[in-house]
Design brief:
Blueprint lengths: L6 H20 L29 E2 L2 E2 L40 E6 L6 H11 L3 E2 L3 E2 L11 E4 L4 H10 L4 E4 L9 H5 L4 E5 L14
Parallel strand pairs: 3-4, 3-5, 3-8, 6-7
Antiparallel strand pairs: 1-2, 6-8
């Protein structure tokens, strides 16, 4: 203790020196951060700059390439197969029955010689013929031809009827309306009464 310095003054000086020492100790922490705060520099993430990296989706580059799609049109030509069906009409020819019939033609028209012509035509078809005659009585002149027949030889008379185009076949009357009646008939069992419709005409049903 210096002679003459008051004790109070010494105590204050000691207190100030202590405070200065404490303050100096607090300022001597980190020499890189004068303010005592840690550097806030953010660490680099190491990720590449998005502006320089091409965008990929599922590992494939998103480079937009235009694909020209060519529509290939397959033209299918439909070929219509037309089956031409030819309908064949089968004509059944009924055979002529000539056996057993004895035929006489009576001219019931005003066409002279018509009965003789028909007699020859039927003979060429295989029928047994007798000499032609003329119609008489109530059937001397007929507009439509018809046939008189005995029942036992009707199939033969019907064959002649077909050749004449389908004329009527009737049972033979007694007496027969021809010249000389029963005597003029002789052994004939079929009489064709040739009318004006078929006199001098070819056989209408000659094809059958």
């Amino acid at each position: 203790m210096r002679p003459g310095v008051p004790v109070r003054t010494l105590l204050m000086a000691a207190a100030l020196a202590t405070a200065a020492l404490i303050a100096g100790s607090a300022c001597s922490g980190d020499d890189t951060s004068p303010s005592g705060a840690a550097s806030s520099t953010a660490p680099s993430s190491g990720a590449p700059d998005a502006s320089t990296t091409p965008t990929t989706i599922d590992g494939a580059s998103t480079t937009d390439s235009s694909t020209n799609s060519t529509n290939s049109t397959t033209s299918t030509t439909s070929t219509t197969s037309t089956t031409s069906t030819t309908s064949t009409t089968t004509t059944t020819t009924i055979p002529l029955i000539t056996e057993g019939g004895i035929v006489k033609v009576a001219n019931a028209s005003n066409f002279g010689g018509a009965a003789g012509l028909l007699t020859a035509a039927l003979g060429e078809r295989g029928f047994t013929m007798r000499q032609a005659t003329n119609a008489a009585g109530w059937e001397e002149i007929l507009d439509v031809t018809k046939i008189y027949t005995r029942e036992e030889v009707r199939p033969v008379a019907e064959s002649i009827a077909r050749l004449l185009g389908g004329v009527a076949v009737e049972r033979m009357p007694t007496p027969v309306p021809i010249q000389n009646a029963m005597e003029g008939l002789g052994d004939a069992n079929i009489v064709v009464m040739l009318g004006m419709d078929l006199a001098g005409e070819p056989l209408p049903g000659a094809a059958g």
